Amino acid sequence: MKPRDRGNLLILGIALSLGAALGFGTAAVLARTGMLHIGSTSATLVSVASSTLITVTIAFIYHTPEILALPAGVFLWFLLAGTINFPGGRLMNFTAIRLIGASKATVVISTSPLFAATLAVILTGESLSLLVGLGTLAIMAGVMLVVTQR
Fold first, then answer.
1. 57 and 94, same domain (yes or no)
2. 87: containing domain
3. What total of structural domains would you count in the chain?
């Protein structure tokens, strides 16, 4: 891969990450507003059902052959990830938003890089650079400042 291609992929990756962050932040505020009228379990049901419908539709429109050729082992990994992330993670996320508000809950949830980095090193053998390690610690320090603020 040419250095220029790597640079373009880096920019695209950062842009997509920022788009995801914007989406998650917006979803937290929308969830907080919606949960003024329903509980977090009902909110999770509506959210997961609508997400599933949209995602399955788009996935099958654009990637049917790839999905049908997915090896069973790979499918199970994604099934596990989806089970943990969507119903489990979203229910805890929505409950936290309901209890402490969107601004504090999303800050605490932003500690996910710490867990992702640790699990990536342990489970997949990824290496953790000093810069990524320091960045992860900085995120944790920022979270502690926000959460302990009165």
1. yes
2. 19-102
3. 2
Per the domain annotation, does 1 fall within a domain? no
150: pLDDT confidence band, cut at 50, 70 and 90?
low
127 shares a domain with 77:
no
Residue that is written with structure tokens 């809950």 in the block: 105
- Give residue-wise pLDDT tens across range 98-114: 999 998 888 888 888 78
